[in-house]
Amino acid sequence: MIKSNSKIAVCAIIAAMYIVLTVGFAPISYGIIQFRIAEILNLMAFINPIYGIGVIAGCFISNLFSELGPIDWVVGTSATAMAVFFIARSKSLLVASLWPTIFSGVMVGLMLTYLFQIPLALSIASVSAGQFGVMTCVGFPVFRYMLKNKRLMAVLHSVKS
């Protein structure tokens, strides 16, 4: 079992993974068309809610690198925080994979419409499509496979919320 004082370290590792995957793939992580690979980590909160803290922190720090500035720090991070909140309470992995599509699609879509004066339906559709691709088309099967691995789940569940 991982001791409770290790929670910060575990969350820091998840945050670092999020930052590396976002900033490392910056051309597809920011802007009107987004395919943020790091969003898959949102599903860690389905396994253990404590992991959501690392995801939210990683999202905020990654958004500091966004050319959109402080509005992205607030809106983008808030969308992730709301998605993580609902993911942690979901009973179904499939449903959990849809929360980022909903929250980021609407919130980030509204932000992009405001910033770039593009049609709202287009910006919501663009962000939602990227989120759906990452979270449901890629993340769902990856996490479904992970959930079947008893040894991995024992380690991931050993961090107490």
Summary tags:
161 residues, mainly alpha, Arp2/3 complex 21 kDa subunit ARPC3, globular
Describe the structure in your own words:
The protein is mostly helical and 161 residues long. It has one domain (4-157): Arp2/3 complex 21 kDa subunit ARPC3 (Orthogonal Bundle), CATH 1.10.1760. 74% of the residues lie in helices and 0% in strands. It has eight helices and no strands. It has helices at residues 7-24, 26-29, 44-47, 51-63, 70-89, 93-116, 120-147, 150-157. The two termini are 12 Å apart.
Shape annotation: globular
The helicity comes to: over 70%
Cα Rg: 15 Å
What is the count of structural domains?
1
N-end to C-end Cα span: 12 Å
| Count of separate DSSP helical elements | 8
What structural category arises from helix and sheet content?
mainly alpha
Q: What's the SSE pattern?
A: HHHHHHHH
Count the beta strands. 0
Proportion in β-strands: under 5%
Biggest sheet features: none
CATH topology (level 3) name: Arp2/3 complex 21 kDa subunit ARPC3
Named at the architecture level, the CATH assignment is Orthogonal Bundle
CATH class category name: Mainly Alpha
Brief overview:
With 161 residues, this protein is mainly alpha-helical. It has eight helices and no strands. It has a single domain, classed as Orthogonal Bundle (Arp2/3 complex 21 kDa subunit ARPC3), CATH 1.10.1760.
SSE layout and pairing:
Blueprint: H1 7-24, H2 26-29, H3 44-47, H4 51-63, H5 70-89, H6 93-116, H7 120-147, H8 150-157
Helix pairs in contact: 1-4, 4-5, 5-6, 6-7
